[in-house]
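Morning. Coffee machine broken again, so started the prediction first thing and wrote up yesterday's gels while waiting. Chain of 294 residues, entered below exactly as on the submission form.
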Amino acid sequence: MDVQDASPDGRSNLPRPFSPFRVMNSPISVVIPVYNEARALELVLWGFCRQSCRDFELFIADDGSGPEVHDLVEAFSSRAPVPVRYTRHADEGFRRSAILNRAVRESAAPYLVFADADCIPHSQFVEAHRTYRAPRSVLCGRRVQLSERLSAQLTREDVLAGRLERLAAVRMLYSLSGGGGHWDEGLVIRNSALHRWINCKEPYLLGSNFSLDRALFEEVNGFNEDFVGYGGEDTELEYRLRLAGARFAWVRHRAIQYHLYHVARTGRPANDEILRQTQAMGKAACTNGLRKDL
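Came back before lunch.
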């Protein structure tokens, strides 16, 4: 526990720690950053309960939420079919890069999948990232955008029954009348030739749906913790991974997510300057990342 997380009378302001459901080293760590929004996180966690692949751990990276998130994860971990781990730092504003790096440091998994606390996974989400992984490769996925109404009405039972995965063509028509967007991203395409033809454009990284070897993430020193406030950290990481010679590949239409509605966020202009500095320096490894001694 960080010293700064204590109240003036010496008592902790943080939720109490808890033991994970199962203690073991998993070959894949699915890292999920979260800040409050416990209802959305609960739906996401239930989505990970119905994965076709169970050879992974869930690592919840808490960017300073109140106790509701901690209590949810603690309760969920006791019944989850996979190991669940949790780490948290104090609430000092949006510090997604820092909490993600902290989760990676605490995990020993050789392969990392980055998801998000408002993106419900398809039942084959983890399996797709596992199946198509390759040395020095970054797998890039996308997500369906759920409408505000559907997001509000969605229940745990809906998620566990896989209702979001049904009737993709009908949902695509529904989106034309304002029922969310990008429903085409929910189509599963198994044929390799068709998949290559549809996904002919250069892949690019979306922070809620990408994966890579831990060794490659460590090579570029992880996320740049100079980024505070919303926006830019994923783009900058992609730039440095490309400098390191990483190969980017699509897992669109294979590693599928359903993004719960929320009001659009505004990026922090100062983060744009950090990206420009990275481009000017031309170095793959950031100095303020997983390690601080570079």
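The beta strands are 28-34, 57-62, 84-88, 111-114, 119-121, 137-140, 144-145, 210-213, 247-250, 257-259. Going to sketch it on the whiteboard this afternoon.
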